[in-house]
Amino acid sequence: MESNISSWFKAFYAVSDDGTAHDKYPNFFTPDAKLIMGDKVAVGRDEILTTRKNMWASVSSRHHTYTYFTSPEAPNTYMLAGHVKYGFKDGKKGETDWVAKAEFEEEEEGGKERRLLFYQVFLNAGKR
């Protein structure tokens, strides 16, 4: 799993930080994936797309930085720690630290693209 994971996360957060890439975001997930973003829960790509669009409702820009960790005992699971900076549509700015758990579907022979089966982000939005 470790091969190319750095490129995968780079592509994932580039799309996550692109407010015009809503339709690309669900493609990083399996069709029945579960996304938990703070207190919001979405199951399946349609709900993930709706959640994604709602997350951008008051946001004009955002930029994630992160590091990730895994273990040989759970090679399809990654823990991430990061920071995100926001620009809001009302002109204000904000930032917060976050951690996440990313679980990928089991890899199969044949080079199938990596997809998230479960992704949960823990954050404290704090003051805007």
Give a summary of the structure in a few sentences:
With 128 residues, this protein is α+β, with helices and mostly antiparallel strands. The chain is built from two helices and six strands, in the order H-E-E-H-E-E-E-E.
Poorly predicted sequence stretches spanning 5 or more consecutive residues: none
Q: Strands across the major sheet, in which order?
A: 2-1-6-5-4-3
CATH fold-type name: Nuclear Transport Factor 2, Chain: A
Q: How many beta-strand runs?
A: 6
Q: In percent terms, what proportion of residues is strand?
A: over 45%
Radius of gyration: 15 Å
> What is the overall pLDDT average?
91
Q: State the CATH architecture.
A: Roll
Q: How many structural domains are formed by the residues?
A: 1
Top CATH class: Alpha Beta
Helix content percent band? 10-25%
Q: Tell me the series of helices and strands, N- to C-terminal.
A: HEEHEEEE
Anisotropy-based shape: globular
The major sheet is characterized as: 6 strands, mixed
Structural class: alpha+beta
Walkthrough of the structure:
It is built from two helices and six strands. By secondary structure, it is an alpha+beta fold. The protein has one domain: Nuclear Transport Factor 2, Chain: A, CATH 3.10.450.50. A six-stranded mixed sheet has the order 2-1-6-5-4-3, with helices on one face. Strand 1 (29-37) and strand 2 form a beta hairpin. The model has no long low-confidence stretch (mean pLDDT 91).
Key words describing this protein structure:
single chain; 128 residues; alpha+beta; Nuclear Transport Factor 2, Chain: A; six-stranded mixed beta sheet; 2 helices; 18% helix; globular; NTF2-like_dom_sf; SnoaL-like domain-containing protein
